[in-house]
Amino acid sequence: MKLTRIILLTLFLPVMCFAQNGTVHDEAAGLQQDPPLSVFSPFAHLTTASMAKNATAAPFVCPLFLYYQNGSSASYSFFTESVPTSDWATKITVPTQASVCTVWTVDIDFELLNASVTAKDTIRIFIREAFPPYADVYNTWFLARAGQNQGHFEIDPPVVPPFNLRPIINITQSRHEFLIGYRVIGNATHSVKFRFTSPSLNAAAPRSFKFATRSSIIPASTAIGSSVDQVFEARLCCDLPIPVELSTFSAVVESDAVRLLWRTETETNNFNFEVQRARNPQGPWESRAFLPGHGTTTIPQDYSFRDPFALSEFMPGEAPVYWYRLVQRDFDGTINDFAPIQVLVADIAESGFELSDAFPNPLSLSVHDHASIRYRVAQDANVRISVHDMLGRELAVLVDQFHPAGVFENAWYPDRVSTSLYSGQYFIRMQAGTFNTVRKLSIVR
User: Fold this and answer.
1) Closest CA to 196 of 328, 25, 337
2) Measured by CB atoms within 10 angstroms of the end CB, which terminus of the chain is less buried, N or C?
3) Three-state SS at 222
């Protein structure tokens, strides 16, 4: 499920300072780590408004380091350029969590020389693709001031009414790397003093670059003539990419009703669940109830709904079968539906305990994400259903609790156990008192 996420990325751009004569010198001082930062978005009030009354704030995890200098023996190097300076940038690999990043902040540190307090030089901060022709992804501008320029510079995206914040970058599976950097433009009598580390901490795989032309880059070490890297650090402070993760969805057939039970492991921006019923999996679907969600939470939540029925609703000779599904809605109006389950309304005790074959079987993970498992409990009993591999190793426990008499259905999601399960035979085992049975399930990848 989706949420208009406010994710903050703090980038520590090269703490760049330079020598007046354009030469490189070293300082004895080594690099020091900055203390952890807590960064909050200026758009927080917009998010609160857009998430409505019952939405709760997303859980935040800070910081996630994208790239940072972690050497303890390197010293500082300085390099000076006249204004306008070259474009200097550092390559970072961005995780998929950042695909919805809407606010980035950068920390930069440089010295503007020969400028008066009324100077109007400009800092252009850019994000570019890390492959030719290095197309611009985003640009923003700030005024530079005479002397030391140090601190946070925030890159704010456009706000699209009512409260949609566009992400800064779009990540694809093949494009996770970006170049983030800046240049100073303005009065040609001014100069800028950049700071680098010496020697380079990434000599084998350069991370710091100079744009030799607008469409070509060279390593910073090549440009300066000495093994150096920008002093750069990137932090991602973001809400966890938590969907509404449905772990179980089962049905219990009582004497005059079907009781639906489901559990979520995590929820984000969850407004409500709609319970729908149909006579076949293609519909038409009939709304039976609306249950409020829990907003955003990482605590498992259990839901229950009792749907009355009468066998007289079925025509003579018609299979007494209902299909149920859940439709979930976000606070922002996004709708997600989950796979339906089939419920057989019949005499529970007529055939005793039973474990039906899983469906579909074989389970093709390129097409399906789960197998449905139906079982009948003839009388009140403790029931345990587990999944095993060919060696007998237990991979998952689907059910392990007391059951009243009834017909139940559950689901197994293999990829939540492991994304490296092999094609082959697996076994589903049901234990209820002295009843013990096994069904085979084939998995095809």
Assistant:
1) 25
2) C
3) helix
Give the max Cα distance, the chain: 97
C-alpha closest to that of 197 among 420, 411, 27, 432: 27
Contact of 200 with 225, CB cutoff 8 Å: no
Q: What share of the chain is helix, strand, coil (3-state, %, to 5)?
A: 5, 55, 40
- Terminal-residue alpha carbon distance, the chain: 26
What gap in Å lies between CA 267 and CA 297, rounded to an integer?
A: 5
Using pLDDT thresholds of 50, 70 and 90, give the confidence band for residue 254: confident
Enumerate helices (H) and strands (E) in the chain, giving the number of each. Answer: 3, 32
Contact 144, 119 (CB under 8 A): yes
Determine the Cα–Cα distance for residues 75 and 182; give it in Å rounded to an integer: 22
Tokens of 73: 């023996």
Q: Has residue 23 got a pLDDT over 50?
A: no
In the chain, the domains with their CATH numbers are 8-239 (no CATH), 245-444 (2.60.40.10)
Residues 272 and 329: beta-carbon distance below 8 Å: yes
CB 158 within 8 A of CB 103: no
Among the ranges given (75-79, 195-199, 200-204, 380-384), the one the predictor scored with the smallest mean pLDDT: 200-204
> Which residue from 245, 283, 279, 287 is spatially nearest to 262, judged by alpha carbons?
245
Quick one: which H or E segment has residue 324?
A: strand 321-330
Bridge partners, 68 (sequence order): 233
Q: What is the DSSP letter of 99?
A: G
23 by DSSP, 3-state: which? coil
H or E segment at 136?
A: strand 136-143
Contacts of 128 (CB under 8 A, 6+ apart): 89, 134, 135, 136, 137, 178, 179, 180, 181
